[in-house]
Every structure is written in structure tokens, then in C-alpha cells.
Amino acid sequence: MRHFFTILNQEIRMLLVSPSTYIAAVLFLAIMGFVFTGILESYSAAPQETSPAAVFFQYFWLPVFFMVPLLTMKCLAEERRLGTLETLLTTPVTTTEVVLGKFGAAYFLYLLLWASTGGFFSVLQHFAGDARFVERGPLIGGYVFIAVSGLLFVALGVFASSLSRNQAVAGIGAFTLLFGLISGLSFVEGMAVLDLEVMRPVKEAVSYAQVFQHLEDFSRGIVDTRQLLFYLSGTILALIFSILGVEAKLLHG
Amino acid sequence: MTVSPPDESAPAIEVSHLVKAYNGIPAVNDISFTVGRGEILGFLGPNGAGKSTTMRILTGYLPATSGAVRVFGLPVASRGEEVKRLIGYMPENNPLPEDMRVSEYLYYRGRLKEVPRSRLSVRLDEVLALCDLTRVRHRIIGQLSKGNRQRVGIAEAILAEPPLIIMDEPTIGLDPHQILIVRDLIARLRGRMTVIISSHILPEIEMTCDRVLIINRGQVVAQGSPAALRREFLGRSAYELEVAGDLESLPTLLAHIEPSLRLDPPVALEPGPSATFHRLRVVTDREDDLGEVILRGMVTAPGLRVRGLRRAEPSLEDVFLAATQRSWDVVDGATRPDVR
User: Fold this and answer.
1) Are the Cβ atoms of A92 and B62 closer than 8 angstroms?
2) What is the Cα–Cα distance from A27 to A23, expressed in whole angstroms?
3) How many domains, chain A?
4) CATH number of the domain enclosing B100
């Protein structure tokens, strides 16, 4: 694992000088800024039951769909296209270190961008001067959810990038995987066919993997180990598949 | 920090019965060769002969289908991690990241190749000076000229001072001046490192390499020093003769001078005195220099005027063409009955 930090350090530096990072960051902050303003406007129009933080994190999927693909699509696909994967893997570096280093760098940036939305809440706190607007519980729960679910989202993006040498294909692949996980599964849960007695185990499995349900639990301060396990095992699985994806391409050209 | 190979007596590379197939189609078909320590080996072959595949297997990047490869006595298949520490590799087309600076890139690669941090900056300066890159060390790689990029690739390969350097077409796409610089660079590695280079530019190989390995269709068709290969494939020495006059008597005259001398190809010569000079090729099986003997015999012959005589030096190109042609003939000859 001695090369992990060398690669992580390098990847973070490269992400910080890459234009696509800044496009992702600007888009992200702009959209989340609009969302946040919209929420505040609805609060000023009529009294609401939930805190602004809880509503704000309900929109987490919006940036995830475009930001995660933008951050991860380049990582392995570009290396393979340029052929630098060959020079990288002929040094005493293992595929695992390469994949983990790239994953680590993308995840770090993902967290960094979300952390910048903390500014919204501090502005609100500063000008509203009312502690009720910035309730601690939902805020911390929301960020913990972002951090934990982000592991899986970024890992899926890295996996998509390991399958192609084309950045665009990798990006669309990542979007499809994320869309299937976040929206697809909640759609599947509502299907009538799952109400059949035979389909009970499937229905249980699907309702266990509801990302929106997880968010709600986290926001209420419930940290369920089953949910943590869901994201952690999913992350590890996606990363193992990424490593296999890189190595399979070596074996079969 | 020179990485010392573990086994002191083992040759740098031992390849035995190496086979690599892509989806059942063999790219490398039963190749065996050895490379001694400190040797500079030139790897020749037409496009698609299996040069790059063999090199990739040597570096441990690709797994072989069957056969054994040992680098300084270490099997690549089972101890790939250690082998990678002993090799500096520059792949075909020299892939480099576009958006890094030269010194940044080399520093990163040095860290990956486990050059100690304290040694790295000194070594970086050395390598930059050796490859004449000091002036461009702060430039972005994507904006460098092809020659400079190529030298960055070479600098990267020799950075960790590995005992074995493998370069896949290091001179491709360079202008003659840059080729000269690269050749100098490789010559400077002589004695310190074992080097394998593949190239299409044959004079290049001939000038830098101690030994040449020619492969075609995944098989070794010839190996040895350039001089030995010439003897093996072109056999006899040849002389070029410019002569005018009564050419009909020439074959008899040649046989009189030295029994093994004959015209090649045997041409029909018109009888009688002729004013125009003809350029003819004379071959012999003898190795020693017959130039003076031929010239003396010609000058004294009546009715013949000699303008020039010179010993034809076959180039490696002729050897290469003869060797690959011969292997094609063998393969085609073997498959023809099936086609019918």
C-alpha cells in the first residue's frame, strides 16, 4: 500500500488543475444555491414542519447525477486511452493501489464540494439569527448520509470508468448506474408485481436498498448499521469489479 | 541507487518457448532467446510480428499463454513485483500525461519506482542533464516537441537506474538530428545497463546494437551479431564492377582469375567491343578480400576497360528482407498443399 498515497496525492493534484473539476464545481454550487434559495423562499411564504436542512438534502440526487460522472469518468478511461495505464502498471504498483488511489481522490473532491455547501447554512445562521433554522440534528445527519452514500456513488463512477477507454461512455455509464440505483429502485418498489406473495423476498431486498429511505433515517438521526453495511459492501464490491475490469482488459486486449 | 539483481550469474533475460495467443490467434509462437548482461539487443521484425507483445510480456504487463520468462533469474509470472523493480520500460508510442510538467512527471514516476526521496532530486537533475531536458524541465509535456517527448520517455525509463531497459521503438518519428541524440544516449548506457530496443530504422540498430534478433509471424527467424547475420543470410561476398569492352569473354576471364567468381545474376552479354560501361555484380564464396586480385586480372586482359571496382557491403536491410522472406517462404510452402 506504499504507493497508495503517492497516487492519491498525484490524482488530487491532477483533479485540482483539471478544468472538468471546476465545471463540476460551478454547476454544483449554482444548482445547490438555487435549490437552497427556493427552499428559503417557501419558508418565508408559509410556515413549514421540517427544518430547511432536511429539505435541502432531499435534493442530493440532483448533483449526484451529473457531478459524480464528471469527477470519475476521466480517472481510468483516460489513462487507458492515452496508454499511460501501461507505464503505470509496469512500475512496482498494483492494480489495487491504482484503483484505490483514483477512487480516493475522486471521493475527496466529492466531499470537498459538499463541504462547501456548509457555507449556505453559515450564511443563513448569520443573517437569520434564529437557531431553529439551522437545526443541528438534520444537518449532521444529512452530511453523514452524503459522506457514506458518496462512497458507493463514487465507486460506481470509478467502475464505469474502468470499463471503457472513452470518457463519454464512462460518464454515461456512471449516470446510468446511479440513476438505476437511486431512481430505478424506488420505481421498482412501487411495482404491483412485487405485492405477490412469491415476490416477498425480492420486495424486502428492494425496500432495503431505498436510498431516499436511508436519507430520511439519517436526517432523523437514526444510523442503522444495516444501511452502513449496504453502502460499505456496495463500495467494496464496485471497487473489486473495477480492479477486475482493469485487469480483464489487460488479459483480453 | 542501482537496484542490484538478486542472482549474480543468471543472464539478464531468458525466454523459453514463449507463446502468447489473443483469442486463440497466436501473436507470439514459441520464441526462445537469451540476453546476456550488459548486452544491447536490437529487436527487429515487420509490423505485427510480435515485438511489442514480447516486450510487454517481459515487463510483466501482459501474462503469457505458455512458456517461461526469467529476468535476472526471477520468473516474471510468479515474482512480477520484483521483476518490475529491475526494468525501465518505454512502451510503443511513448504515452505521457498531457497536463503535467516535465520535472513534476519525472518526480512522480521516481516516487512510484521507489527511488528514495533524498536521492530523487539529485537523480532528477542527473537524468535531465543526460537527456538534454534541463531547458524544458518546467514546460508542460503536452506542449513539447516530439523529440523532447521521446527524451522524456527515455529519461523516465532510466530514472531509477534499473539494470534492464526495454524500449519499444524509441526513435520512431524523430528527425535525423534527434535520432543521433537518442543513439548517443543509448551508447552512453552501454556497459552499465542491459538494453533491448525495437526499431524499424535498421542502420540505427546496426550502429547501436551488439546483437540482433529478427522475428516474423511470432517466431525467431534469425539472431546474432549484424556481421554474422550477413554471412548467414547473404552467404558470399559481392563486388560491383564497372566495365566496358568485349564483355563476352568476361565469365571465362573471371573463372581464370579465381574459380569461385561468377556473375550474379548471370546476364547475356552482347559480343564484340562496346563503348558503354556496364555495371555488373560479381559474387564469390570466399570470405577474404579479392579486390586487388580481380583488378589486376582485369587490367591485364586485352579488350576490357575497367572504370571501377568496389566491394558491396550488404546492409542489415538486405539481411532483414532475406530473413523475413525466407520465413514467409517456409510458411507459405507449408500451407500451399492445404489451399489446394
Assistant:
1) no
2) 6
3) 1
4) 3.40.50.300
